[in-house]
């Protein structure tokens, strides 16, 4: 039952996030949507809605491999469902953010996606696993503002994705593209950049925060059990 609730929460959050990305694309609106969904799901699943964020929690041993796989699958499926709904609602006029890139743009896209995914994931970790700010109420706002900053800064270059669920959902929109091979390679560049950024955020988190400042895995699991008990 708990797994279903976790997966459903991540699916719903990713669905609405990607739906707004597909229909609006406005960095402020996307950031605000993420803020709302983070507050809505934080007490249940942590409100990740992003495989890069879940990957960082896995690297920090705050998610098991099975739980990471569950989260990532729910997030990606939520993103795909959102793009299908958006495409149907707009009569097929939705524009996918991931397109077949010219190979000369690969490095540029990789750098910007990695940098701002790092900023996003580092912010998530800073406001969720840092003992000194445990129990804060601004975590959702901080995370949403990071998306706004990244979208404004890098949106014109990369589309401002910073999330493999958005990347894969957007790329799937062009599955009938004549440039399938180049599209596949472009998608891989995005996803690798986002996972690289998440890894960098974990290393930065470990470098800056001492062990005593970080909420331990034991306490993290204890908190999850308390939430489960309260819900039941």
The total domain count is 1
Proportion of β residues?
Answer: under 5%
How many whole angstroms does the radius of gyration measure?
17 Å
Helical element count? Answer: 9
CATH architectural designation: Up-down Bundle
- Unreliable runs: none
**Roughly how many Å apart are the termini?**
11 Å
Q: What series of H and E elements makes up the topology?
A: HHHHHHHHH
- Give me the secondary-structure category: mainly alpha
Globally, the shape reads: globular
- CATH superfamily membership, which one? Glycerol uptake facilitator protein
Mean pLDDT across all residues, rounded?
87
Q: What is the helical fraction, as a range of percent?
A: over 70%
CATH T-level fold name: Glycerol uptake facilitator protein
Biggest sheet record = none
Number of strands: 0
CATH class: Mainly Alpha
Task: Characterise the protein shown here.
The protein is mostly helical and 232 residues long. Helices cover 72% and strands 0% of the residues. Helix 3 (51-59) packs across helix 5 (106-128) and helix 5 (106-128) runs antiparallel to helix 6.
Summarize this, please?
This protein is mostly helical and 232 residues long. Helices cover 72% and strands 0% of the residues.
What is the topological layout?
Elements: H1 2-23, H2 27-41, H3 51-59, H4 65-89, H5 106-128, H6 139-158, H7 164-172, H8 180-208, H9 217-231
Helix pairs in contact: 1-2, 1-4, 1-7, 2-6, 3-4, 3-5, 3-8, 4-7, 5-6, 5-8, 7-8
Provide the descriptors you would attach to this structure in a database record.
232 residues, mainly alpha, globular, Glycerol uptake facilitator protein
């Amino acid at each position: 039952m708990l797994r279903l609730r976790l997966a459903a929460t991540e699916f719903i959050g990713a669905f609405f996030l990607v739906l707004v990305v597909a229909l609006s694309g406005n960095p402020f609106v996307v950031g605000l949507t993420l803020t709302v969904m983070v507050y809505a799901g934080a007490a249940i699943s942590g409100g990740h809605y992003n495989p890069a964020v879940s990957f960082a929690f896995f690297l920090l041993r705050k998610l098991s491999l099975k739980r990471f796989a569950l989260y990532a699958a729910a997030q990606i499926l939520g993103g795909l469902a959102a793009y299908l709904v958006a495409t149907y609602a707009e009569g097929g006029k939705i524009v996918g953010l991931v397109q077949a890139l010219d190979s000369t743009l690969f490095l540029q896209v990789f750098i910007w996606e990695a940098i701002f995914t790092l900023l996003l994931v580092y912010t998530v970790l800073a406001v969720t696993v840092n003992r000194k700010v445990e129990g804060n109420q601004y975590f959702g706002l901080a995370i949403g503002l990071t998306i706004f900053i990244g979208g404004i800064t890098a949106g014109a270059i990369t589309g401002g994705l910073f999330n493999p669920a958005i990347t894969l959902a957007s790329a799937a929109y062009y599955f009938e593209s004549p440039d399938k091979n180049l599209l596949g390679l472009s998608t891989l560049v995005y996803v690798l950049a986002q996972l690289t950024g998440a890894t960098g955020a974990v290393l930065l988190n470990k470098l800056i925060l001492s062990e005593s400042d970080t909420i331990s895995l034991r306490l993290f699991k204890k908190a999850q059990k308390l939430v489960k008990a309260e819900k039941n």
